[in-house]
Amino acid sequence: MNIAIVGLGKMGKIISEIAKKRGHEIVTIDPASKDADFPSIDQKSVAGCHAAIDFTHPSVAIKNAETLADLGMPTVMGTTGWYEKEQEVKSYIEQKDSAFIYASNFSLGMNLFFTILKQISPLIDRFDAYDVAGIEYHHNKKADSPSGTAKTIAEILKNNIDRKKTITYDMVDRVIGKDELHFASLRCGSIPGMHKVILDSEADTIELTHIARNREGFALGAVLAAEWVADKKGFFTVDQMMQSILTQDRQL
Ligand SMILES: NC(=O)c1ccc[n+]([C@@H]2O[C@H](COP(=O)([O-])OP(=O)(O)OC[C@H]3O[C@@H](n4cnc5c(N)ncnc54)[C@H](O)[C@@H]3O)[C@@H](O)[C@H]2O)c1
Question: pTM of whole model > 0.85?
């Protein structure tokens, strides 16, 4: 495929490398990078491309999404921070009969982790011998707590395990309720990110852990999403991509 990489920052550079390794031809678009092939998205810069991947800035994400839809370019939107305008963007994409996929976390491993949790949590729901909790670890520069990913994991567990009715992220300086799902956060050193789900009974403990090593997982997920969305029309989340891959007999 020919892929336009929009934004040649930290993520755009890794995505370019991963896309090339997977045999794609790329063009890069960034007004502020001397290494980019083009400064802006237009007919010339995306000519011959089958999809575009945007990892830029929240302030330009919607404009870029609209310009790419005007040019009929299936788009992977990795940029975060525009979600309050989700309905507006969805209408624009549908009106232009274009294709668009977005995720706040494109990491392939993390999306596999979410999918695995969705599959097994109805089973956990059947066995109330096991209490359920979570913990996430990140480096000491992380601004938010809990991580957005921890919130997604906690919601998956709460939505599928009937005995957990609420999520508690804060420290509990009391006995925790049986119907509370505790999800704790720890900040230390340089940890890129670790999310753990704990199932605990009187007899044993089961731990399911995702450990991020670097940013390559995000980049691979974004390139796979470009391959997936290139022949589609519509507005998709990465969840829909994972569900569709689950039902296809296709190797990615
Ligand atoms: N969805 C995910 O899985 C995921 C993962 C990592 C980062 N992100 C998000 O991706 C975005 C970029 O992250 P980053 O770490 O690469 O940032 P970065 O600051 O390193 O790079 C952003 C690049 O976009 C360029 N840019 C700005 N406006 C542009 C425009 N109109 N057209 C083309 N290029 C433009 C900038 O010059 C810069 O080089 C952020 O919103 C970040 O939160 C998402």
Answer: yes
Give the chain's largest Cα–Cα span: 64
> Taking the domains of the chain in order of start, what are their residue ranges?
2-106+216-246, 108-211
Name the CATH superfamily, with its identifier, for domain 2-106+216-246.
NAD(P)-binding Rossmann-like Domain (3.40.50.720)
For the domain 108-211, what is the CATH code? 3.30.360.10
Residue written as tokens 């609420």?
166
Cβ 60 under 6 angstroms from ligand 1: yes
> What is the C-alpha to C-alpha distance for residues 27 and 43, in angstroms, rounded to an integer?
13
pLDDT at residue 20 greater than cutoff 90: yes
Distance CA 201, CA 15 (A): 42
**pLDDT (tens digit per residue) in 67-106:** 999 999 999 999 988 999 999 999 999 999 999 999 989 9
- From 34, 55, 80, 238, mutation site for ligand 1 pocket: most ligand atoms within 8 A of C-beta: 55
